[in-house]
Amino acid sequence: MDLAPKQSDTADSSVLKSTVESRLKNFMNEVTGRALVMMESATQNQHGIAMDLVQEAFISLHKSYAEKSTEEWYPLFYTILNNKLQDWRRKEARRAQPFSFFRKVSLDDDEIELNDVVDESTPNPLEFIDRAVTAEEIQEAIAQLPVRQQQAFMLRAWEGFDTHTTAQIMNCTDGSVKTHYHRAIQGLRASLAHLNPHLGGSSE
């Protein structure tokens, strides 16, 4: 029996697996830091929980979407991460409210969409940083925002996703993203205004 084709298939499979593992390693090195910042803010600085969520998202990405291109991994990874965060938040909410299984648990206090919100351009996060405002102070200000506002800001300003892609990741409407993002920018400007007088606050 000719075993050459099987050996060739095995070799091709080994190379493909090695390539995927290499791509995933590079991808993890690039996004882990930002993803952890996002999850630490969303979990109120519970580093262990944040790390678990990020690692679980990477595992799911590798398990279900290994054949996708690296560019496709970005929105897929954050969609998975968002879903895991929402699952964790629901469990925490039910733990805090023992009888919440009898009713739908509301996770957000700012889901009402604002009418006619302009789809603001994606700012460079560094615009908030000058000699008076440090990265640590920005992270602290982000952590004070409601979780959905944190997500909208981080996905748009830090990851550079557009409104529609952000909405797909967050599993909400484009209008909700615009609302969360608009409020996040206002909240950050208000929180950081005393540190940087050039920022100022804006009113709706």
TrEMBL record:
PANTHER family on file: ECF SIGMA FACTOR (PTHR43133:SF64), RNA POLYMERASE ECF-TYPE SIGMA FACTO (PTHR43133)
Residues in RNA polymerase sigma factor 70 region 4 type domain copies: 136-185
GO biological process terms on file: DNA-templated transcription initiation
Source organism per UniProt: Acinetobacter bouvetii
Listed GO MF terms: DNA binding; DNA-directed RNA polymerase activity; sigma factor activity
Pfam families: Sigma70_r4_2
Name recorded for this polypeptide: RNA polymerase sigma factor
Keyword list, A-Z: Nucleotidyltransferase, Sigma factor, Transcription, Transcription regulation, Transferase
Entry similarity comment: Belongs to the sigma-70 factor family. ECF subfamily.
